[in-house]
Fold:
Amino acid sequence: MRIAFVEIEDPEDVKTWSGIPYFILQELRRQGAEVEVIAPLARPFKYLYSVDKIVSKLTGRNIQVNRRPVALRSFASQVDRRMRGKQFDVIFSTSSIPISRLKPGIPVLFWADAVTEAMVDYYGGAFANIGYRELCVAHAQEQAALDRASFAIYSSNWAAEIVKGLYRSSDDKVRVIAFGANLPIDHDLNDIIAFNEQRLRSQCNLLFIGVDWDRKGGATAFEAAKILNERGIKTVLKVVGGRGPDSPFVESLGFINKNTPEGLRQIKSLLSTSTFFILPTRAEAAGVVFCEAGAFGLPTLATRTGGVGDYVIDSQTGFCLPSAADGGAYANLIAETLASPETYRQLSIGAFQGYKQTLNWDVGVSSLLSLVERAVKS
Structure:
């Protein structure tokens, strides 16, 4: 199977989109696919929108230049030129954008986490304050990608159902495959059992990973830790990525680069020794970090929002709480679970089994290749 891996940014760079394209690429090759990277793609058109960008800054309205027709034609032209004279069975991307205007012929698949309509005024950042014109542009781009694709794969049922409700596409074309853990995993169930015995003998360590303290629900995590300490349950909130409040029970560890040997060792240590992973996020399309927690049998407490429910199975791999849940609700579940060590062990093993069965790139890419074969044969 010869695959053209098309991306705007470089999938060989582990820093691209949190490493998701990189790990998919490596797993495709490990599973025997012959992959040629068609990336990165140039953006000569960006200078055409200098005025738009100035207006955007002045008005606070976000624009998405990469989705505009000129950009899509440019991407398609570059891909066509770089593929010319070569034989490929299929074209694949982790974004719907660069494949939207490709010529008919070779089957196309893409694997994304959401469409713009799902994210606007939900996720914030580049998706906040998008005007009607930009939404129309984004909708047209996503529809063009769906029309061109043999299969449109999304990382959660939440995203897939939104696509089915807003776009013209057959249900058979829209598929769901969960993302995997962006970490090398070399332990087994016996190690998870050993982790648990150490965890249950230690203080309660809550692990919070997220740069955006507000969107990721950092205040709720802090409140939970505070309440647990007030109840006499010694608890430390370990914050990775951002910075938590100055407090005797908060350890702000800053950014940890898990792509370095020392960073990887540190992240693995935190995942294996923490008692719970806590992320009361306000908005989340998917969550590689949930996969990584599961890989270490770390029960997760998170919010039932966006695609989280596909990654945290309530009462099996952790707990999914309503968006309105406060720190007290999180603290109650943590205290109840710690009071029943067998319940904790079951959640931990459930989290590891969830990782082994679904939330890993081996399973995800195997499912992707099955769809690739169907697309080529059809």
Remarks:
- The mean pLDDT is 96.
- The chain has two domains: 2-180+360-377, 189-357.
